[in-house]
Amino acid sequence: MGSPEPLLVASGISKHFGGVAALADVSLEVRGGEVHCVVGENGSGKSTLIKVISGVISPDAGAITVGDQSFTHLTPRQAISLGIEVIFQDFSVFPNLTVAENIAMATYIAEGRRTVVPQALRNIAAEALSEIGVRLDLEARAEDLSVADKQLTAICRALAQDARVIFMDEPTTALTWREVDALFHVVESLKERGVALVFVSHKIEEVLRISQRITVLRNGVVTVTGDVADFDRAAIVRAMTGRSIADSSPSPSVHEDVPPLLEVQGLCLKGYFKDISFSVRPGEILGVTGLLGSGRTEIAEALFGVTPPDQGGVSVEGKSVPLRSIRDAMAAGIGYVPGDRLTQGVFLDQSIARNIIAGSIQRLVGRLNLLRRSAADETVTSSAAELRIKMPSPEAPVSSLSGGNQQRVVLAKWLARNPHVLILNSPTVGVDVGSKHEILEMLRAKSREGMGIIVISDDVPELVAVCHRVLVVRQGRITDELVGDRLTEEVILKELAA
Amino acid sequence: MSDMAVRVVRRMSAERSLVRLAVLTLAVLIVFSLVSSTYFTVINFQSMGFQVAEVGLLSLAVMLAMFTGGIDLSIISVANVAAIVTAQLLKSTNAATAEPAQALAMTVGFILAGVLAGTACGVLNGLLITRLRITPILATLGTLQLLNGLAIIWTGGEAVYGMPTVFLNIGIASIGQIPVPVIVLFAAAVGTAVFVNRTGIGLRLRLIGANPTAARYSGLDNDRVLMITYVASAFLSSLAGIIIAARSASANADYGVSYLLLAIVIVVLGGVNPMGGYGTVTGVVLAAFVLQMVSSGFNTVGFSSFTYQIAQGAILIGVLGLNALARRYYSEGRPTLLKRRSRTEPATPQPPGREA
Amino acid sequence: MSRLSSTLRRPPLARLRGGNNEGVLVLLIAMLSVAVGLVTPSFWSLGTVLNVSTNSLTNLVFAMGVLIVIISGGIDVSFAAIGIFAGYAVIVLANKTGFGAPAAWVGFGIAAVIGLGLGMLNAAAIAGLRLPTLIVTLGTQGIIRGALLFYIGSKVIPNYPPGLDQLSTNYLVTAQGAAAQGAGVTRLSVLIIPAILICVLVSLLLRYTVVGRGIYAIGGDAESARRTGFPVVGIQVIIYALAGVLAGIAGMMHVTQVRLANPYELVGDELDVIAAVVLGGASIFGGKGSVAGTVLGVVLIALIKSSLILLGVPSSWQRAAVGLLLLIGVTAQALSAGGPRRRVDLLAESAP
What we know:
The complex is a heterotrimer.
Chain A: E1 6-17, E2 20-31, E3 35-39, H1 46-53, E4 61-66, E5 69-71, H2 76-81, E6 84-87, H3 99-110, H4 118-132, E7 134-135, H5 147-160, E8 165-169, H6 177-192, E9 196-201, H7 204-210, E10 213-218, E11 221-227, H8 233-241, E12 262-269, E13 273-280, E14 285-289, H9 296-303, E15 311-316, E16 319-321, H10 326-331, E17 334-337, H11 341-345, H12 352-357, H13 373-387, H14 403-415, E18 421-425, H15 433-448, E19 452-456, H16 460-466, E20 469-474, E21 477-483, H17 489-497
Parallel strand pairs in A: 3-9, 3-10, 6-8, 8-9, 14-19, 14-20, 17-18, 18-19
Antiparallel strand pairs in A: 1-2, 1-4, 4-5, 10-11, 12-13, 12-15, 15-16, 20-21
Helix pairs in contact in A: 3-4, 3-5, 4-5, 8-17, 13-14
Chain B: H1 3-14, H2 16-35, H3 42-67, H4 75-92, H5 100-130, H6 136-155, H7 165-172, E1 174-175, E2 178-179, H8 180-198, H9 200-210, H10 212-217, H11 222-248, H12 259-269, H13 281-301, H14 305-332
Antiparallel strand pairs in B: 1-2
Chain C: E1 3-4, H1 12-17, H2 22-39, H3 46-71, H4 79-97, H5 104-128, H6 133-152, H7 162-168, E2 171-176, E3 185-189, H8 192-208, H9 210-220, H10 222-228, H11 232-258, H12 270-279, H13 291-310, H14 318-337
Antiparallel strand pairs in C: 2-3
Helix pairs in contact in C: 2-13, 3-8, 3-9, 3-11, 3-12, 3-13, 4-5, 4-6, 4-11, 5-6, 5-11, 8-9, 9-10, 9-11, 12-13, 12-14
């Protein structure tokens, strides 16, 4: 049972990045001795919130209160001295230092020590370990540890520094279910010591199992917050993916008798997805949905040749295509707007023009591999116009654009290739509402021209508004196909929550 | 803002370093001309012209590799390989004593052979980097040593002489008033500029250097472009080797070792961004000339070549340091300079949408 | 409730291999020795051991400095220039002022101080201005070399100051025969003692001091290192200062052994040292490496060179051999690691 007095309160936190609100008036109350889960999908603002509280980023507005001290922003060092520790997904352990050193070093250094006395380190580490009743080989090098043990090391490191609030970002991602059990036992020990735990997660089962309170973020805003006992799975899912501003009505369905543009048969990739079969007709917009970790991204990337499947076949326009590489996929007329725009989608410091023609270079070169300037300029101008990219000039760097405009640039890059099938992964994440509408409208327009489109998304209204059919993916398999009357927000939510 | 205007403005600001370089060139010219009466003469400029081509070509080679975010440390060894192959062929066929027409044919043919040999070394680099996935610094460090070693074995550590006049003319002749090596350098520079700025491969090269992941996801075929890059680098290095051989009338496995530092100084001075994707050919060529002018100036004034070496190192660190300080100044908004950052907020604004 | 973790003990085979593949190196050295010994039985003698030891002294000490820098994630190519600067300068100084016998060690002290001063150049640019390590050390190499040749002298000095002369002929062990160049006495220089001592000290530094562990931490992730509380900038200053000191000492050793001072030596042979460190298991990306592995790497390269000589291979083959060995070693590392884990931004700014 959590103590009534909150250890940490974040109130009214807002943070903007270039016109898009990553967080808008978010509040979080953390009590000692309990687990508080922060839940949300891509683009919800979860990681920004952690970064603000742990001092990595400063918020534009709001306050962080710990005990009787209140701050408008924190530095990492301040956060640590206040007892706030964050364990990110990579755990930040030093691979070449021993477990004991990883756990104890920060404390050790803080004591002003210069020489390393292994026994002293061991003592500090052992104490932390005993607090949660875990045994680790203190002399083992961190790089030799299993993921679960690295995580335990990180937790002990936090304890050794007298952490009062421990944030863990997606803590069970890389763990087996047995290791998850072990972790949850450790969590119980921590709770008994009055430590507050904040889990950032998207795994609803675990959230229901381990936490006492829950805060759901969506698009940078808190949709619900309260005791977990008051929620069930469906309610959480609805809060995660629920309503945003109403979009226009769904598109009319596609002709039935046209031969499929893309046919996928029995695709398997060990550990990620199994028996994936579906088809996409010309002019059809197919949605693929599932919660994070369901395999939806892996399926998309397999179709794009990023991680070729172990088994199964794909054919485009009736011709079987090998998908051993991205080049194969592109040659077959498949395009992919990736989920991680900044790392995979755009060349931030390069000009908009260069970004747009990046996918069409082959087409735009003439003799001696020289770029045909006029053709390139033409491509850029027409793409920019078609997608209504708001920019000072095509020579401006992409980094100067808002998220929505950046996404238009990525889209422009792919549309310039006129692919048969365009796959988009979470296309409207981090995109302002206006751009979102226009992007979806663009997709509809393209489908009317005969392009096959696959939209991977967990934005339920978006799926309903733009897709003709929706496939639901769960744990690597297609569990349902929704079309017509069944293609509604309620049904999708129910499927996701199932 | 009109498109053309933005283009010009962006060029100007992005090539702020180009303007700085031009000013620097002028300054060096003026200072040395004032100090010595023999500096601002045709003869002196010609002499500079003969000397600048070698390192200018090597700098272009390094620049290409740096554009992709890597580096090519083997340029000197490759240059020497090309030189030695050509020299050995010329020597063993007694081209020096052949009829002029025949000597010309042999020279041309053997130069091609030498350049081919050097370029093949670039293929080796490319394979190590793209197939075996060895990081460029280690791969080219290894080939630097290996090729140097092989060259030593072949020549027995001795210099190779015996070149025909036709070949040597490359190093001493001028067309009009312009030394042949300078013409070669300009031709190569123009070719490189066209390659980097106007071709599809050049564009891919820049993009790969800017963001290899996005390049991959855009289907740019990173491996092939990297291979071409290192082959091109080796090609330019081979040209440099031929010129070195022509000018020194001999080929040696250990020539030009001090050129590596100089080439990197030139490239950095020329504004090449260390993170890949930027810089200009013009900047690099200009920087090569600036440094040559400094070297010639030192010579005229009577400074020893050792002082020149000190100057190179000082310029390199100086330019880097100034760039770093300027970047920090502009990104932090106030002069924090040497003070350690207390926040871990990155210097570039945290981009939006990077949510989990 | 006590829960047992899943990795209590590493499997025995992994332990034998060693953290940095030291086991593989030992195996390689053993195999090489056997192979060469079969061809030339005279290889198997005390003389060979002494020869190899004597030949690797200088590189060993250089390698210690390079090791520290590489573990921290940087690269140093200026060490040879620092070494020869220090060594040459001391000889010049000694000839001017004259040293007695006990002052032989004073010479080393001076060389160390010179090395320290030069190392601080690197420290200032890398730790202070946060400039990329490869380029900086390339620059300081030029400056130091130029300064040596210009300000101190560019001539070879054949006459040896008496104090140091005695040191160079001071032998620890002498053994009969064994050199391929006919009969003779092979000796083990007394300088082996400071060399081994340095290795031990560096090993202790890396293992048992906060600074040492910090070097590994910085090489792993400089940002995390700073958050853990390691004084990153201070440690970097120590790294490059120490590398300078070691280079100075190594340069002095070289000059002592060779018995003349040639300002053109050492620079150009950097690769032997870097190759030894890399072959010894240190990762170019930083965060990994050991004294033991480096020692083995130096021994391996020295052994290969000795073997080549013994086998009658002309000395001109040595460079190619080392280059090939480096490429093979690096390929093996790259293949087993599954490709570079991160881009070596060797031109990027150093740790914050």
